[in-house]
C-alpha cells in the first residue's frame, strides 16, 4: 500500500476553485490524465478534496461504514449552511433520527398520493411562463419544485401562506449567477471572519423562511391535526424535537427538494430541445421515458460528487487515504467511464433500455445509507412534470451547448438552460 498522492494542479487554491467551478468536467478529465485516477484539488479556506475517479472504488465509497466515512461532515465542508442535525448534513444518530422522522412524508406510498396533483400544479405554473421570448428554464423549474415541496410535501395548502413561503425560499436561495467558489463556512478565513460573514448573510436570507415555518408549526399544533405530510410526520414522531431543530432540519431539505430535481427536470427538457426526434419519442412512447431520463442524468448529473470525510484510513486499489481526508467520487467522470459506457460522450438512451448496466458506476441518487431521501419524489416529478411540460416544444436559444458548472454541491447549465417555448 502507499499513501494517497497529494498530486494535483500547482495553481493557487483560488485559481483551482475558479477553474473547477467553471468547467468541472474539463478540469477533472485533465487532472486524471495528468495525475492518474486519484488526485487532490485545493480550494481557498477549505480542506483539500481528494477525488477518486476509480469505478472499482465507487461501491467502497458509497457503502463505507457510516461510522468511518461521514457524509454529513464532508458535505458541510462544501455547503456549510447544512445543519449537522439534518438528514443532509448530519452523521450517526443525528442523521438516522432526522431521516426516520421525515421518511413517512417521502415514502413511496405517500408520494403516489400526490403525483396527480404534481401534474396539475405544473399546468398552473406553465401558464405563467414567458411566451414568445427566451427564458431561463432552470429558474422556472426551481420555482415549480419549490411550490411542489411547500404545497404537496410540506402540506401547506393555504394560498397566501404557501405563496409567501415559496417566495421566501426563492429569496433565500437566489444568487446573481453561479459563484465560482465554494461557500464560506463558520471557521473559514483569518479568525473565522469570512465564515462569520457568510453565516450572517445566510441567517438574514433565511430569516423569512424560519419565521414562516415557525408559524406553520404553531398552526398545526393549534388545529390538533398534524397531517400526513413531512411536517405531520415530524410532529407525529415519538419524540419530536423543539421547533428550532425542526426548522434547522427542514431548511436544507427545502434546498435539496428544490435544486437537484429542478436541475434534472431542466436537463431533460434542455437535452430534448436539441433533439426533436427524441423529444417526440419521449412524448409518444411512455415506455421509452425512463431510459431517456437515465441517459440525461448520466451525462448531466445533478450532484457533482458523493462526498465522505474519513474518520479512519480507507484502503482502495493500492492507495491508503488517511484519516481526516475529504474524498469525492466525481459524478461527471465516473458516469462517463468508457468501459461501462462505450463512446461515453454520446447520447444513447438505449444504454438503459434494460435498466442500469451491471456494475456501471452510475449513482444519480447516491447510495448506501445516504441514498437520497427524496428519490421517490424526484421520480414522481419526472413522471408528472415532464410529459406535461413537453406539451410545449422547446428550442435552445444559445447556439453552443451549455456546459456544466458547479454551484455548491450541484451541477447546473452555465446559462441556466436558455430556451424558448413554442405551442405544438
What attributes does this structure have?
424 residues, three-stranded mixed β-sheet, alpha+beta, 13 strands, 15 helices, single chain
Characterise this structure.
The chain is α+β, with helices and mostly antiparallel strands. The chain has one domain (2-423): Cytochrome p450. It is built from 15 helices and 13 strands. It has helices spanning 13-22, 24-35, 58-62, 71-78, 92-106, 108-126, 137-153, 159-173, 193-223, 230-235, 243-273, 276-284, 289-299, 331-334, 375-389; strands spanning 2-3, 38-41, 49-52, 69-70, 135-136, 305-310, 314-316, 319-321, 326-330, 392-396, 404-407, 410-413, 418-423. It has a five-stranded mixed sheet with strand order 2-3-9-6-4. A three-stranded mixed sheet has the order 1-8-7, with no helix packed on it. Helix 6 packs across helix 7 (137-153), helix 8 (159-173) runs antiparallel to helix 9 (193-223) and helix 11 crosses helix 15. The N and C termini lie far apart (61 Å).
Summary?
This protein is of the alpha+beta class and 424 residues long. It is 49% helix and 12% strand.
Topology:
Elements: E1 2-3, H1 13-22, H2 24-35, E2 38-41, E3 49-52, H3 58-62, E4 69-70, H4 71-78, H5 92-106, H6 108-126, E5 135-136, H7 137-153, H8 159-173, H9 193-223, H10 230-235, H11 243-273, H12 276-284, H13 289-299, E6 305-310, E7 314-316, E8 319-321, E9 326-330, H14 331-334, H15 375-389, E10 392-396, E11 404-407, E12 410-413, E13 418-423
Parallel strand pairs: 1-8, 3-9
Antiparallel strand pairs: 2-3, 4-6, 5-13, 6-9, 7-8, 10-13, 11-12
Helix pairs in contact: 1-2, 6-7, 6-15, 7-8, 7-11, 8-9, 9-11, 11-13, 11-15
